[in-house]
Amino acid sequence: MVTKKVETALNEQIALEAASSQYYLAMASWAETQGLEGVASFLYTHADEERMHMLKLIKYVNERGGQAQIPALKAQPQKFKSVQFVFEEVLKHEILVSNEINALVEVCLKEKDYTTHNFLQWYVSEQIEEEALARKVLDKLKLIGNDASGLYFFDRDMGSLTGAEANAGNEKA
Ligand code: OFO
User: Fold this and answer.
1) pLDDT, tens digit, for every residue of 139-150?
2) Which CATH superfamily is domain 4-172 in?
3) Separation of CA 127 and ligand 1 centre (Å)
């Protein structure tokens, strides 16, 4: 059974995972309209993964005697300045999520909820990977600068990264 404090904190995390999924979906849709199929594919997969993170939390809260709250959807931006800006936002957002996961872990320790603490370790590891991936992508973009042919190859690489990421995600889930 989860305590009220843990339930509330988990529900906040459900809302954040849902918001992450929507944000990445908006980025994916924008990238698709820019002819960046690889980037779009990567971000669509990322949006799906965030939805899976949300679902995992919903099921956990309900299984542990709490009540998961399904959040409202907020309108998302329709345009982004550049691919670089998109991935800067991804990294910023992932750092925010990591901080929130850490705060959630802290709540569990204070409440002596070691079961939820254990459950959350998957999210702790996931955040390490997601932050590292966002940094890797940003490093590539910095190398390219304003080179159009560089962006073409970057987009192609992002398409293949999607496949590898999706497979890794399937193995983990
Ligand atoms: Fe849910 O893993 Fe990123 O945000």
Assistant:
1) 999 999 888 899
2) Ferritin, core subunit, four-helix bundle (1.20.1260.10)
3) 6
